[in-house]
Amino acid sequence: MTTYDAAIAGGGIIGLSVAYELAKTGRKVAVVDRGPLHGEAVSAAAGMLGAEAESHHGGAFFEMCKWSRGLYRSWAEELKDRSGVSIEYVPEGIIRAALDEADEAELLARAAWNSEAEWLSPEEIVRMEPEVASGELRGGYYFRHDHQVHPLRLATALRRACAALDVAFHEDRPVTSLLKEGNRVTGLQTSAGPIFAQQTIVAAGSWSSSLLSPHGIDLPVFPVKGQCYSVAPEKPLTRRTLFVQGCYLVPKMDGTIWVGATQEEAGYDKTPTVGAMAALHAKAVRLLPAMERARFVRTWAGLRPGTPDGLPWIGFVPGVDGLLVATGHYRNGILLAPATGRLVKELASGEPCSFPIDHCSPARSADGRGEIIRS
Ligand code: GLY
């Protein structure tokens, strides 16, 4: 039976990014998923690279988000070369607008730790995006480096790039447990038999804890449902992504606008609900009234992997040999994909990390802030 260099539990964006970076080193890699590849958190994503728009305080994680964002342009080109698929990297920024006094105050306070953000008056926002309603606008930040990609095209590009590097995919094959010999993890036990590997990486998003906790590994990850919808307006309504508290509108290359996303701790339920769509749409229309006349395209929901302090778990699991985790990326899986792939490759190879990741360590106490950060 084949013994892989690396077996990865989870074929989402993070699992595929890790597989891709490991396979580029010549390793023999297997990716195992309980369903089809990239069927979960990626489907909650709109593809914003919102390092600034989605951060609520400065520090190591904010710096890591900006670092990963900065890797994207060349990563997009590299993936295109290897897979033939464009991930539709759009180098337009995000306007994060405030519609009430409290939100304006929260945004303005960010100047203390984000010196790059540019404050725009309501008039300046409307000059940049003439379809935006000026009535309730109190101003907002322009995050010119927060670009966007197409999440499903990113998943396809990664999958094809991995396939070209001979990564083995095992889909619709639930991982039932970690294989262990003494203190060493030796691979993954699956519904269709064992998959042995020198190194095992758990990148199973919201399902990660169920693989880890039977072995006494306490790294909480829980599902946070995100519902989205998309529309096709008759003419383009915005060039840049627009973002107000609890709602963003992302204009895609095909002319559609993706609107997201709710944030619900509702277990593993992914049912889209009329109430959530109505609430999202009400926010979208306050900012962009012409959304009311746009043709409805579709609605969907996905499960983000949340952690108690809102930070991912990346690194070797202390006290267990041969086991790494790359999970719990919460709202930042797309943004942090290139960084996570590279960092896990470096850790697995015994190389120094190109960016400090102590704040993501599986050895940390995640009780810190007690509650996940809301956008
Ligand atoms: N990063 C956007 C979201 O999770 O809704």
From TrEMBL:
Q: What are this entry's molecular-function GO terms?
A: glycine oxidase activity
Cite the FAD dependent oxidoreductase domain residue spans from the record. Answer: 5-347
Q: Please state the Enzyme Commission number of this protein.
A: 1.4.3.19
Q: What chemistry does it catalyse, as a reaction equation?
A: glycine + O2 + H2O = glyoxylate + H2O2 + NH4(+)
The biological pathway it contributes to is: Cofactor biosynthesis; thiamine diphosphate biosynthesis
A Pfam family of this chain: DAO
Q: What class of enzyme is it?
A: oxidoreductase
| UniProt keyword Oxidoreductase present | yes
Task: Look up the domain of life of the source.
Answer: Bacteria
Its keywords, alphabetically, are: Oxidoreductase, Thiamine biosynthesis
- Its protein name is glycine oxidase
Species in which this protein is naturally found: Paenibacillus thermoaerophilus
